Amino acid sequence: MYLAAWINANDITDTQSRIMITGLAIILFLWLYFRTARSFRSMATARLERLHQTLEIYSRAAGMLDNEAAADSSSESEQEPESLILLLQQCKAAPLITTELLEAIDAYTRERDASRHLQLQRVLDREISRRIREQSSIIRSLDNPGWGIGFWKLIRPAVPFAAMVLILYWCLQLYQELPGQSFTVLSWTSAELWIRFVSCVAAVISFYLAVMTPRKDSTRISYRVLALLISAAALAHLAGLTAAPYILAVQVILFAWGFAMNPHRSRRDRPYAGSADLLEVSEEEHMQTEK
């Protein structure tokens, strides 16, 4: 309303107003596009920095574990464990430390025997290999991306602007349809319009979150698929306004399903044979049997 009054007061024609709106939209699109692209590159660079810090500590710890296993003299076996324990404590403060490695380090620091040493060495080597693969993948996507990744990186920064345009479109559609229909504000048709609006906005937000999620671990992938299903459900609005309540009900059910998808402890996160948790339980059971 205020924009229309300002246009009429300044004798601006429809063509001029369209040119102005188009120019503002282009400026907003370019600003959002380059800002989003810069933020993605900053996140990738920050991830590489955390990977570099983690790998640096892990590599030093792995090398010291190998030296301890190969040490034969008594002087080396007396001096080296203290520096190794200190380095393992530094590993616990690594940016990308995992639960499995934390449990292996705690088990080794409690009982420094050969089985603990071998278990820690295997877990550490596996983590180093995993982080090296992730580091290589990020570097390859930044410096030499393939055709698919390059095309996805080209269109992905445009998603925020597209989401904003879609939300604005549904707002304008709701604004135009509510006063233009011959029904009361509290009628069922009015409720269906509001339900369709909420459903479509929820679909746009879900699609935005699914596409813009940076990490690709198993938990995030499950949530991303669920968000895409919520977005895809909104396509059923093409069937008509009467389907809006059912579509929103399906989206609410899918959203509630996400709370049941809390990640369970994986096999790596569970206590392994010889872990501190299992040893404590076995010691308690042994003491109870002796009593």
TrEMBL record:
Entry superkingdom: Bacteria
TM stretches of this protein: 15-34, 154-173, 193-211, 223-240
Keyword Transmembrane: yes
Keywords: Membrane, Transmembrane, Transmembrane helix
Name listed for the protein in its UniProt record: Uncharacterized protein
